[in-house]
């Protein structure tokens, strides 16, 4: 880690290390990762008043009743993205493309996600993307199946 | 003087579906800034945070003509670096006074909102002379590998569970993503965006305190820089610095007895997005919470953007400065690229010529990354007529503070 920093001392190098974080059993986001493990894209919602609750909360922000989760179809609109070219944090090989997408069947919900760099020349704001599921490795070394997106064909 | 009601100010700020203004009471004219002080700004210097803070305070008190024992209020930042405490102040100056203390001061949005809190404290007779100070040693910390501005992400449960696995940190990525959307919606170009770092660098070149004063930044050199996170290059991202700044506030009547002409706090605003603290959940990707903050401060100060002569805008990234300039109503939403590329931020392009001189010290991009408190110091110097890059006839100034999910606005004016 120190070596990496010394090679790239420029700016904003993020030296934060996550403590071991069990995403599947995460208090609020666990169901997102459990669904992903089964190739499903799911978000937190209130079945009582029909409101999607994102980011997830234990109680509905409108009716204060307990929330649950619902599966989405997997298509989403690309709101925006960036191609990270400089290793601002040493845990991710560059280039990589984090993005914000809005599921077509959950208007107003914004998911932070990932697009493979092989598609970088094809990306345009508002294009429709399709979810895929691939393994990611988090900074603490654990591997999870994660929703990611590719241009819809 | 008739005070404006919260409902009047709220109406001026308007209603929005993606955020709102905080209800700050009208304190227009009640307090003034009477002294400013700074340390040298540098890269890694191994200077101690508290030592730098005390050095800045000494300079500010000397500037104000106020003795250390007269200070009875201290405002610092919570949670950002190691800040001064009242006992540090007493130990250093050898004084024994009681000190009213608030950790809702410092830099970023608090370099503006501290003036509101100071006015309330002075009105409640909790304090009479209040120092706001901020010190940062992130250049040294980065060299040592011990801390960085991105560290807090890992401590936030939903960022660490839903954003960090995708590498959506640290901060440059947020605003690169937002700037990409601005380019898509409004046709903003890389060359237009470049006008922000280039103009601020021009200011830094003739400002004695700016850390990058020796380095020119022509357009061709800007465009040759590789991308960090597109569309941001190195020059679009703030410095990492060591240094401190402080300013002294007191009631405006008392301010008139100080060594320097008072700079009056005319208006303060604060805005926050829905979904805070998660900027990934901001529903308007091409704007900032300055949208809610600026109109509140303008209404309190009884001005519009057309009355403002010089601004200091929190420029952690070129794109956040661009969007805040739009949100402060210096041009139409989306027209910011064309506006800044037209040379309108340069200190010689005055309001009367359609400009709005911005970050005349070089900003976070070229002066130093002390998180905005030096923007306020620079505006005070502008209104006193003693700035290095002096804006002719500057009488009204505005600082735009920013954290990401929150923004603030501080309107300052010369004493009538």
By oligomeric state, this entry counts as: heterodimer
DSSP strand tally of chain B: 12
Q: Report the average pLDDT across residues of chain B.
A: 96
Global geometry of chain B: globular
Strand composition percent of chain A: 25-35%
Number of strands of chain A: 7
Q: What would you report as the Rg of chain B, rounded to the nearest angstrom?
A: 20 Å
Structural class of chain B, by secondary structure, is: alpha+beta
For the largest sheet of chain A, list the strands in their spatial order: 5-4-3-6-7
Largest sheet of chain A: 5 strands, antiparallel
Q: What is the count of structural domains of chain A?
A: 1
Instruction: Just give the CATH class of the largest domain in chain B.
Output: Alpha Beta
Overall number of domains of chain B: 2
Compact overview of the structure:
The complex is a heterodimer of chains A (153) and B (416). Chain A has helices spanning 2-7, 30-37, and strands at residues 41-45, 68-72, 75-81, 97-103, 111-115, 128-137, 143-151. With 153 residues, chain A is mainly β.
């Amino acid at each position: 880690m120190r070596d990496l920093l010394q090679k790239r001392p420029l700016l904003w190098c993020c030296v934060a290390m996550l403590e071991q974080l069990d995403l599947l059993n995460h208090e609020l986001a666990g169901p997102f990762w459990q669904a992903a493990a089964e190739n499903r894209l799911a978000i937190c919602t209130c079945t009582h008043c029909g409101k999607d609750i994102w980011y997830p909360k234990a109680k509905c922000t409108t009716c204060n009743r307990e929330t649950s989760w619902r599966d989405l179809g997997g298509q989403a609109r690309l709101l925006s993205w960036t191609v990270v070219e400089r290793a601002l944090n040493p845990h991710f090989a560059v280039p990589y493309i984090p993005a914000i997408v809005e599921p077509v069947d959950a208007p107003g919900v914004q998911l932070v996600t990932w697009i493979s760099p092989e598609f970088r020349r094809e990306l345009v704001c508002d294009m429709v993307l399709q979810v895929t599921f691939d393994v990611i490795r988090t900074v603490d070394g654990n591997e999870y199946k994660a929703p990611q997106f590719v241009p819809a064909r | 003087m008739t005070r404006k009601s919260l409902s009047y100010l709220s109406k001026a700020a308007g209603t929005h579906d993606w955020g709102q203004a905080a209800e700050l009471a009208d304190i227009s004219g009640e307090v003034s800034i009477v002294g400013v002080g700074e340390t040298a700004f540098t890269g890694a210097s191994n200077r101690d945070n508290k030592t730098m803070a005390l050095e800045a305070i000494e300079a500010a008190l000397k500037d104000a003509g106020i003795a250390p024992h007269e200070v009875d209020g201290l405002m610092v930042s919570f949670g950002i670096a190691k800040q001064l405490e009242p006992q540090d102040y007493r130990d250093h100056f050898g004084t024994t006074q009681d000190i009213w203390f608030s950790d809702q001061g410092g830099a970023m949005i608090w370099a503006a909102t501290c003036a509101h809190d100071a006015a309330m404290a002075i009105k409640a007779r909790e304090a009479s002379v209040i120092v706001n100070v901020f010190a940062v040693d992130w250049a040294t910390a980065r060299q040592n590998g011990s801390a960085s501005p991105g560290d807090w992400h890992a401590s936030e449960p939903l960022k660490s569970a839903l954003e960090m696995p995708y590498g959506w940190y640290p901060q440059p990525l947020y605003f690169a993503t937002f700037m990409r959307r601005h380019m898509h919606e409004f046709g903003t170009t890389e060359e237009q965006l470049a006008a922000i770092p280039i103009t601020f660098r021009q200011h830094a070149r003739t400002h004695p305190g700016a850390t990058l004063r020796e380095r020119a930044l022509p357009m061709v050199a800007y465009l040759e820089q590789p991308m960090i996170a597109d569309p941001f290059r190195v020059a679009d991202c703030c410095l990492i610095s060591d240094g401190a700044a402080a300013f002294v506030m007191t009631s405006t009547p008392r301010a008139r007895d100080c060594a320097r002409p008072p700079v009056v706090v005319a208006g303060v605003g604060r805005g926050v997005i829905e979904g805070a603290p998660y900027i990934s959940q901001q529903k308007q990707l091409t704007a900032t919470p300055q949208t809610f903050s600026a109109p509140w401060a303008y209404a309190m100060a009884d001005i519009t953007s057309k009355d403002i002569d010089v601004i200091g805008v929190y420029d952690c990234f070129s794109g956040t400065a661009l969007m805040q300039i739009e949100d402060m109503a210096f041009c139409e939403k989306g027209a910011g690229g064309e506006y800044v590329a037209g040379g309108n931020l340069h200190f010689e392009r005055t309001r009367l010529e359609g400009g709005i001189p911005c970050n005349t010290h070089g900003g976070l991009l070229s002066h130093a990354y002390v998180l905005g408190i030096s923007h306020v110091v620079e505006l005070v110097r502008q209104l006193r007529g003693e700035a290095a890059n002096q804006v002719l006839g500057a009488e009204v100034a505005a600082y735009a503070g920013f954290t990401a999910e929150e923004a603030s606005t501080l309107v300052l004016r010369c004493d009538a």
